[in-house]
Design a protein that fits this description.
The chain is of the alpha/beta class. The protein has helices at 13-24, 38-47, 59-66, 77-89, 104-117, 131-141, 169-173, 175-186, 279-293, 301-320, 326-340, 344-351, 356-365, and strands at 4-9, 28-34, 55-56, 70-73, 94-97, 121-124, 146-154, 190-198, 210-217, 221-228, 241-246, 249-253, 260-263, 266-267, 324-325.
C-alpha cells in the first residue's frame, strides 16, 4: 500500500519534532506544510529533508493542490479547533497534538464535527504509546478488584517562555498525561474530583506549579495525583511514579523501567503484549493504521475528551474549593458548545446527544 499523503499544519518547535518523525516513517509522505509564517514553513521543509516540499498559509488550498489524504495539526492549543474543523470539512482525517482543543466545549464541537463529516479525528496522547505503560496495565489486571491508583510526579524544569507565565501550569500543561494514563490503566472513567493547587514560595512559575487531586472513578475506585513542577532533587520520571493496589496485591511502575507486581508475595508475570511504538511515532503509526483500516484508534476524539475534562474539573475544584462532579463539567461544556456553534450539521449532532457521557462512551467503546 502506498504511503499516506499528509499535510502538516504548524512548523514551530513541536512541529519540527513531528516533521522528523514523519520523515522517518516509510508509511507516511509529507506533501505540504502550512504555517502562518512562511519562513518557518520553508525551514520546516528543509528540516524534513526536502526543501522543495510545497508550503502555504491556506490549509484547504494546499491540501487540495497536493492531493493530501490526511492532516497533522501541530499548532498551539488555541488553533486546534479552527484548524481541525477546516480539515474535517475538507473531508480529511486529522491527527492532532494534545489537548484536543483549548476547552472542553471546543473538544465536544470537534467530536460532533467528526460525527457529522464521518472523518477520523485522533488526538496524539503520546505517552500512551509506551510499552512499559501497557505492561503496567497488564500487571494491574492481575490484581483483581482494584481499589486505588496513585501517581507521584516531581520535576524541576526551567522552561522559560510561555509556560512560566501560564495560569495553572502544572494542571494545564502536564497533568493531562497522567490523567489520561490513569483512565487507560483503570479502564474506566472519572466521576468526580477534589483538587488543591498552590505555588511554593521558591517557584519560578507565575501560576500554580504544584497540585494534589483525588478522583473518584467508576466502581468507587480512587485515583490520587500528587505533582509538582518545582520539586528539585530526587526527581521522578517524566511519566511519574505509579502504584496500584488491589485485592490480590500491588503493582508498581517507576515510569522508566519495566513494571512489576507483588501478588501475595509472588511477582506477577503477565503475557507479553505487542509493542505500541514510542510516543509520537507510535501515535502516527496508529493513525495511519486507523485511516487505512477504518478501525477506531486509541486517542479518537470521543475517547480523549474525558482526559481534558479531568483537567478542567481539577482546575474548577481548586478555584472553587469544592468537589466537582465530572458530568456537571461535561453538561456545562455541552451547553456552551451548542450556544456558539454556527455549523448547522455540527450543531445537529451536538443537539442529538441525550447524555454527553453516553455519547462519548459509545464511540470510545469501539476503540477497545
Amino acid at each position: 500500500m502506498s504511503a499516506l499523503r499528509v499535510v502538516q499544519v504548524g512548523a514551530g518547535g513541536m512541529g519540527r519534532a513531528w516533521l522528523g518523525t514523519v520523515a522517518a516513517d516509510p508509511d507516511v509522505e509529507l506533501v505540504g506544510i502550512v504555517d502562518l509564517d512562511l519562513d518557518a514553513a520553508r525551514a520546516g521543509a528543509a528540516h524534513a529533508g526536502d526543501p522543495t516540499i510545497p508550503v502555504g498559509t491556506d490549509l484547504t488550498a494546499l491540501a487540495a493542490g497536493t492531493g493530501a489524504e490526511a492532516v497533522l495539526d501541530i499548532t498551539v492549543p488555541v488553533a486546534h479547533h479552527p484548524v481541525t474543523l477546516e480539515a474535517l470539512r475538507a473531508g480529511l482525517p486529522v491527527l492532532g497534538e494534545k489537548p484536543a482543543a483549548q476547552t472542553v466545549a471546543e473538544a465536544l464541537s470537534l467530536a460532533a464535527a467528526a460525527e457529522a463529516t464521518g472523518k477520523l479525528f485522533m488526538v496524539s496522547q503520546s505517552r500512551r504509546y509506551n510499552d512499559h505503560l501497557v505492561a503496567f496495565r497488564e500487571h494491574v489486571r492481575l490484581l483483581g478488584d482494584v481499589g486505588g491508583l496513585s501517581t507521584r510526579f516531581a520535576k524541576a524544569p526551567h522552561f522559560g517562555g510561555f509556560r512560566e507565565e501560564m495560569d495553572d501550569v502544572l494542571l494545564l500543561d502536564m497533568a493531562i498525561h497522567a490523567f489520561d494514563s490513569a483512565r487507560y490503566v483503570l479502564e474506566r472513567d472519572p466521576v468526580s474530583v477534589y483538587c488543591e493547587s498552590w505555588n511554593p514560595s521558591w517557584s519560578w512559575y507565575r501560576g500554580d506549579a504544584a497540585a494534589a487531586a483525588v478522583f473518584t472513578f467508576e466502581g468507587d475506585v480512587r485515583y490520587v495525583y500528587d505533582g509538582s513542577w518545582c520539586a528539585p532533587g530526587a526527581e521522578t520520571s517524566w511519566n511519574g511514579d505509579w502504584r496500584a493496589s488491589g485485592a490480590g496485591g500491588t503493582a508498581l511502575w517507576d515510569g522508566d523501567t519495566a513494571p512489576w507486581s507483588d501478588l501475595d508475595g509472588t511477582v506477577g508475570a503477565p503475557g507479553n503484549a505487542p509493542s505500541v511504538g514510542h510516543e509520537i511515532a507510535g501515535a502516527l503509526a496508529s493513525f495511519v493504521r486507523a485511516v487505512r483500516s477504518g478501525e477506531v484508534p486509541d486517542g479518537e476524539v470521543h475517547g480523549n475528551v474525558m482526559s481534558l475534562t479531568m483537567v478542567d474539573a481539577a482546575i474548577a475544584s481548586t478555584r472553587s474549593g469544592r468537589r466537582i462532579v465530572i458530568d456537571e463539567v461535561l453538561e456545562q461544556a455541552h451547553a456552551e458548545a451548542l450556544a456558539v456553534e454556527r455549523d448547522e450539521a455540527v450543531r445537529d449532532r451536538l443537539a442529538s446527544w441525550g447524555s454527553v457521557r453516553d455519547a462519548l462512551g459509545a464511540s470510545a467503546a469501539a476503540a477497545h
